[in-house]
Amino acid sequence: MESFFTKPAPSYTFEIFPPKGNKSTEATYGVIDSLVSFNPDLISVTYGAGGSSRDNTVEIASGIQNKYNVCGVAHLTCVGTTRENIRGILNELKANNVRNILALRGDLPAGAELGDFHHASELIKFIKDEYGDDFDVFAACYPEKHPEANSVEEDLIHLKEKCELGLKGLISQLFFDNDIFWNWKDGYNSTDNSRYHANNFSRSNLKGSRNVRSLRPRSSQTLCQCLWPSSGSSQGSWNSLRYRTDRRLVSTRR
Asked: Which CATH number is 2-209+246-251's, of 3.30.2000.10, 3.40.50.1820, 3.30.43.10, 3.20.20.220?
């Protein structure tokens, strides 16, 4: 992953949503066969709400890493789970040579309990304390602030705390306006007592793109509360946005 941040050219990545439960992964591997032909720099695999795709996440991330020889990143959410459960998943990932993890709290289902972890930072600390450098840990950042943060400034302080735990990089939440991202970057680098800087933004890598198929916000846009173009947007504005729902991967190294 170190070379990922120093490439002079754009990097191409994909995100896989594995089937839930006991559903077959055959179709998923068919999609991966096609994606690999584009020579992506990495393919990440989501975890599913409440770990609903846990086994498939481990299997597919392992296949990406070992069968296709592409860097695989396994999402890992901690909401509603226990330390013992997380330890079991990490042991599976380690046994399958999956070393890259995107550590997330996850969305809390209605009526559910948080479990042993209340924040992603607690999950990150658990991974680093228990496994040291066995895993390269990535975390999420929010150019429009986390929905539960009271302000952008408060969110940046919590982000710095996560970075201090030894992250390899940050993967941003989706956004529609690049100016929002660059303004967020300036705020990140100006946070008081900063030890880490987003020093690779000049060549920040596109994490993924999602086509806008409808003017109605999807659940993912609603959950993250990203700024959605107004209903009065011109057709021209929508044409320019249609293929530009961006996420970016950036380094947190000094």
From this structure: 3.20.20.220
